[in-house]
Write a structure and sequence with these properties.
Elements: E1 2-11, H1 15-28, E2 34-38, E3 43-48, E4 52-61, E5 64-73, H2 80-85, H3 92-109
Antiparallel strand pairs: 1-5, 2-3, 3-4, 4-5
């Protein structure tokens, strides 16, 4: 899988709490995606469509929790077709960054209302 975008930020709360909030936020979404959850590693992945895979990791940080979000191209042998079909992702990084900032804000508030965090 090829990483298309990676963003990260810090939430001033314990990793366990941030992970639980993130999991609640992603499972509450009505998007039809396969969700992979590894609570021990504090890792979540949402996969859907023919190419999209959004991965989240929550790790300890001196200021609380570092949340890292990667959008990966999960398409098989013709991964390059994703780029063509999506017009080389013009503005994609900016949209992902804006959505991720909203997600972090929701996680910081503790209510997970910052958005779905899915940007694909």
């Amino acid at each position: 899988m090829r990483t298309l975008v990676e963003v990260s930020g810090v939430v001033p709360a314990a990793p366990e709490d941030v992970f639980a909030r993130l999991e609640k936020q992603l499972t509450a979404s009505d998007c039809l995606m396969k969700l992979e959850v590894d609570r021990e590693r504090r890792f979540l992945a949402a996969q859907g469509g023919w190419w999209y895979r959004g991965e989240y990791e929550v790790a300890g940080d001196p200021a609380g929790s570092r949340v890292t979000h990667r959008i990966r191209n999960a398409a098989g042998g013709q991964w390059w077709a994703v780029l063509l079909a999506n017009r080389f992702f013009v503005g994609f990084r900016d949209r992902v960054s804006a959505g991720f900032r909203a997600t972090l804000a929701g996680l910081e508030k503790g209510n997970g209302d910052g958005g779905t965090g899915r940007n694909g």
